[in-house]
């Protein structure tokens, strides 16, 4: 029985595990590394209810040699090794939007689409081969908040395909890193933008920045 290791947190992680259950994976196959913060309580209770193995720090010695490690809604640094397969979901279109706050920067850059990317992990952030990718049109009513939810909701629809490709040894395709840009996890200066666009960017409850 192949071990699935999840490095994740929050409500998005609940969706991820529910999809794994739908695909036939069992609680005893899973190992979860997550945050012990109060804001993560809903996910922790979900994990405890299903008696899934959990740790509040990443313990690499618990990862089996043939495991699949999935980083999802995760901001912690991961040490990649050759003993397991590491994949990540990035809420942005790679290689164009590496790093953080892709929906915010997409609105600032007046993009017509946003998207998400499932990719293999390397020692460099968001540099690994792309496994699967999708785009979502930006409407006039979209905010950074709504786009973020659209991206994570759609990512779950691609999980079955991604697992099939990974389990069958598909290597994905190389990114053209010359076309991309890395955005740091720092809220940008938006004072030069019009007020309507500022509101679309800063509507990110319960708080932003």
Strand content: 15-25%
- Main sheet attributes: strand count, strand direction, barrel closure: 7 strands, mixed
Secondary-structure arrangement, i.e. CATH architecture of the largest domain: 3-Layer(aba) Sandwich
Question: In the CATH scheme, what's the topology name of the largest domain?
Answer: Rossmann fold
Structural class: alpha/beta
Element order: H for helix, E for strand: EHEHEEEEHEEHHEH
CATH class group of the largest domain:
Alpha Beta
As residue ranges, the low-confidence spans are: none
Ends distance: 42 Å
Query: How much helix is in the residues?
Result: 25-40%
What is the tally of helical segments?
6
Overall mean confidence score, pLDDT: 95
Supply the number of structural domains: 2
Number of strands: 9
Oligomer: single chain
Physical arrangement of strands within the biggest beta sheet: 3-2-1-4-5-7-8
State the shape: globular
The Rg value, from CA coordinates, equals 17 Å
